Amino acid sequence: MNFVNQILIFESNMDLKKTRNTEKQNLVKEILSKSTHTMSAEDIMGAMPIKVNKTTIYRILDRFAEKGEVHFITGKNGKAYYALCDTCGTSHKIHNHIHFECQTCKEVTCQPNTLHIPNLEGFTIQETQFLVIGICNKCK
């Protein structure tokens, strides 16, 4: 096999990888867009119509979070729960709305309430997480 053929095969494989990765990214976005609550990486992986490993899901979610397309909250159990950013711009990294975790059904939902984030002199805020824990209306 000559050098030119090797390059063509490599480029073809790169195109294939990009396509598959884009397909997986689109599926993750679609799953999150249809959800009424936040989802863990395991939840997303379970909802995928194709086989995808957890590392790939986390990489996709990390990329989305860096772009401001998704945000996450760490639940009481230490797991990250992700949701699409409906109103956040791509440069907006501070999510100042409240999340509610139900102790009964374990769902974590974004709430419309926002909080004022104070300026902390001498500190640069890079992330905020607001989690309220209780019993949701469905489980009462």
Q: Total strand count, please?
A: 5
CATH fold-level label:
Arc Repressor Mutant, subunit A
Our estimate of the beta-strand percent is: 15-25%
Distance between the termini: 68 Å
With strands numbered from the N-terminus, the spatial order across the biggest sheet is 4-3-5
Number of structural domains: 1
Low-pLDDT runs of 5+ residues are 4-19, 87-92
Structural class: alpha+beta
Using only C-alpha atoms, the radius of gyration works out to: 19 Å
- What is the CATH class designation? Mainly Alpha
**Relative helix content:** 25-40%
Shape: globular
Supply the CATH architecture. Answer: Orthogonal Bundle
**Helix run count:** 3
- The helix-strand sequence is HHHEEEEE
Average pLDDT number: 82
CATH evolutionary superfamily: Winged helix-like DNA-binding domain superfamily/Winged helix DNA-binding domain
Sheet with the most strands?
Answer: 3 strands, mixed
GO molecular function, one term: DNA-binding transcription factor activity
Protein name: Fur family transcriptional regulator, ferric uptake regulator
InterPro entries: FUR, WH-like_DNA-bd_sf, WH_DNA-bd_sf
Pfam family, one: FUR
